[in-house]
């Protein structure tokens, strides 16, 4: 008996049974005898349709393969295929073709299939994704010194977690962290009819002043309990979560559904960014009034989200040192755009390969570049606003507002109250720990003291330019 095919192809064969061929015979005396059987009774080999339906020439496939090895994607390859306007005008006027640019034969699916074949060759250590994931976890644990966890049970959710060795120190030093979830990233190992979820811990990296992803977790269900247990072994201080709105759908009306969904998201954002508990209550009452017809959605929110409002609303999280969107959304966008490529049909082993062998190395490289001044220090929009406020003050007045109390202690006068003064320490040549009510890591007093004393306002920030 023949073994069952593991890959079933639904497309019909492109073979048409043509008997035309060229045969080469090497004789005993060294001469070469060539026979031509060039009769095509059922088709015309010079027809454009015949050419486009045939396989790509070997040289073109080899060129695309070389591009894939160099990690060149479809968008970059398409630039190489672009034809100038003069050639396009010439092609447009032709009725029959004796020759044409080979770039006209290449389309997206040709490039995508070759790139997928190259990625499969890199990511697959075994033909089965379960065994492949096991091998990747063992490789990460032994070769990369990663902290890993891999569990699978028959008819039960599977779980894959890992954190790189170089990431541990950043996670241990982080005072607050966020959890980002990417839905329907791949098909699970245990049940291909369901979808998997990717959870990522994101912390504020003060070297690059951007979000830094850690501790990837792939699982079948949205259960954060295991992630919390796994992360507690590393060391955690605070949690920031961003609530998600459940889908509200109106029968046979996509436009109305989008309007209702946008309104629901606006209501949730109003509650999430409320400055005080009173403002939260007003936003909550507006949320109930505008969505009263969706009883199931309101019941879900009141049962699961409202009792935990202290965990996700700004009214009870005034000490947050960063804006969640500055960290999570930037990582989420880069992950989907440059790595996931908006695809939801990846195998689990491909996803593990992308995260552990590509994404982690790229972020590590960014840290090293910033640490050695190869890359500039970037301020957020709010931090840039504070810096401008500090530099709008006359320099003589700024010098009057700043005073050195001790060798490593400076005092700064309040911007609004003349009787208030705030102190800040210095460490290794940069400012640290201002006593003002602003709990973010870089307040406007940091920028003012940095401007006057020429000290860095962050470890990897550039030194201020002299006035």
Automatic annotation (TrEMBL):
UniProtKB keywords: Metal-binding, Zinc, Zinc-finger
Keyword Zinc found: yes
Any GO MF annotation of the entry: zinc ion binding
Family matches, as InterPro entries: Znf_SWIM (IPR007527)
Domain called SWIM-type: residue spans: 422-454
Full protein name: SWIM-type domain-containing protein
Species whose genome carries this gene: Rhizopus microsporus var. microsporus
Lineage: Eukaryota, Fungi, Fungi incertae sedis, Mucoromycota, Mucoromycotina
């Amino acid at each position: 008996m023949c073994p069952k095919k593991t890959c079933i192809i639904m497309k019909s064969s492109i073979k048409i049974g043509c008997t035309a061929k060229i045969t080469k015979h090497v004789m005993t005396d060294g001469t070469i005898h060539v026979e031509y059987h060039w009769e095509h009774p059922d088709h015309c080999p010079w027809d454009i349709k015949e050419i486009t339906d045939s396989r790509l020439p070997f040289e073109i496939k080899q060129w695309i393969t070389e591009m894939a090895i160099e990690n060149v994607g479809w968008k970059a390859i398409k630039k190489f295929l672009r034809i100038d306007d003069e050639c396009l005008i010439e092609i447009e006027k032709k009725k029959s073709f004796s020759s044409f640019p080979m770039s006209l034969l290449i389309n997206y699916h040709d490039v995508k299939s070759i790139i997928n074949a190259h990625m499969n060759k890199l990511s697959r250590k075994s033909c089965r994704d379960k065994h492949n994931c096991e091998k990747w976890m063992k490789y990460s644990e032994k070769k990369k010194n990663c902290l890993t966890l891999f569990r699978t049970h028959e008819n039960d959710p599977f779980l894959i977690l890992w954190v790189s060795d170089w990431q541990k120190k950043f996670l241990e030093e982080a005072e607050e962290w966020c959890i980002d979830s990417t839905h329907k990233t791949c098909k699970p190992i245990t049940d291909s009819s369901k979808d998997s979820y990717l959870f990522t811990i994101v912390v504020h990296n003060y070297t690059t002043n951007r979000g830094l992803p850690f501790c990837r977790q792939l699982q079948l269900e949205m259960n954060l309990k295991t992630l919390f247990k796994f992360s507690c072994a590393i060391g955690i201080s605070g949690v920031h979560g961003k609530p998600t709105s459940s889908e509200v759908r109106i029968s046979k009306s996509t436009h109305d559904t989008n309007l209702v969904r946008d309104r629901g998201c606006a209501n949730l954002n109003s509650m999430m960014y409320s400055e005080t508990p009173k403002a939260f209550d007003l936003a909550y009452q507006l949320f109930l009034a505008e969505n009263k017809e969706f009883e199931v959605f309101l019941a879900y929110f009141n049962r699961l989200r409202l009792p935990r409002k202290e965990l996700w609303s700004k009214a009870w999280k005034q000490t947050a040192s960063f804006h969640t969107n500055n960290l999570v959304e930037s990582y989420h966008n880069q992950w989907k755009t440059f790595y996931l490529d908006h695809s939801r049909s990846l195998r689990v082993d491909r996803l593990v390969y992308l995260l552990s062998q590509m994404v982690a190395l790229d972020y590590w490289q960014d840290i090293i570049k910033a640490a050695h001044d190869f890359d500039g220090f970037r301020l957020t929009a709010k931090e840039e606003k504070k810096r401008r406020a500090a530099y709008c003050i006359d320099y003589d007045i700024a010098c009057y507002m700043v005073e050195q109390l001790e060798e490593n202690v400076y005092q700064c006068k309040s911007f609004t109250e003349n009787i208030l003064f705030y102190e800040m320490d210095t460490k290794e040549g940069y400012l640290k720990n201002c006593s003002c009510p602003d709990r973010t890591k870089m307040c406007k007093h940091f920028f003012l003291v940095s401007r006057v004393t020429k000290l860095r306002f962050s470890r990897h920030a550039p030194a201020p330019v002299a006035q």
